[in-house]
Amino acid sequence: MEDFKIQSVLLTGSDRGIGLGLVQQFLELLHPPQFLFATCRHPEGPEGQVLKEMAARCSKNARLVVLQLDVTDPHSITAAAKEVEEHLAGCGLNLLINNAGIAQETTLDSETAQSMAAVYATNTIGPMQVCQAFLPLLKRAAMKSNCPGMSCGKAAIVNMSSSYGSITALDEWQRHQDVSYRCSKAALNMLTRCQSLGYGTTGVLCVSLHPGGVKTHLGAEKGVLTVDSGTKKILDVLSSLSAKDNGTFVDWRGQRVPW
Ligand code: NDP
């Protein structure tokens, strides 16, 4: 973990919950990223303000750049990609974490087309379009790196998934059916597999990550980990990912989750 060096990271949904916790953890690294792009829907809102205050407190060797990015709005995605490219000035983006997500407490009976579509738009289509927009920068990072193999420090996409999306495990089905959420994360997992085949050949590592049950707005009473301890563990896992993990589904302990 002490050796974990990463030049640039971009996070979606970074103004609260796991996203905000990850921003904090990256800034506390022995070698913090030179560029940490913390994106959120409402940078001018109260939660965006917290990020901006963190940015103002950053040391000279780490830059926290707060950008607007709504994963359901293609214009906002392309605008953010353009800004990131300008900041990076010819360098690539090393790590993209598709963290933004929503959940609806639904059952098979109560699920609707509208909620299904809304959850899918944020949790599945959003990450797909964000990856498409940032792929040139990720490829550039892979191409310019001298590091052998694959790693988050070189070029990687991490899709924040959930054990609820595991078709085999069907985690907590008796307590929470959450059909749209489960389907959106199962589809996200398939997206990760497809990306690992399509982008893996260019050196971009692609992984689905289950962060564990974390006490956030989304995790609510299901969470057992605090944001601080959960995100520390996520960073441990990110620092250890390599080519053997390309196209896999891992959890906060680094263990494989069954598809
Ligand atoms: P939170 O509800 O605390 O945070 C969700 C974040 O996603 C917020 O920053 C929110 O922004 C953002 N977001 C929602 N919709 C959009 C959008 N359209 N564009 C950009 N950002 C958006 O949830 P968590 O931190 O718990 O969840 C983070 C990820 O981890 C999710 O993908 C979730 O599925 C996954 N996960 C979480 C678990 C847990 O126990 N907490 C368990 C398993 C998976 P805003 O403030 O604007 O609403």
From TrEMBL:
GO terms for molecular function: oxidoreductase activity. Pfam families: adh_short. GO terms for cellular component: cytoplasm. Signal peptide: none annotated. InterPro entries: Fungal_SecMetab_SDRs, NAD(P)-bd_dom_sf, SDR_fam. This is C-factor-like. It comes from Eublepharis macularius.
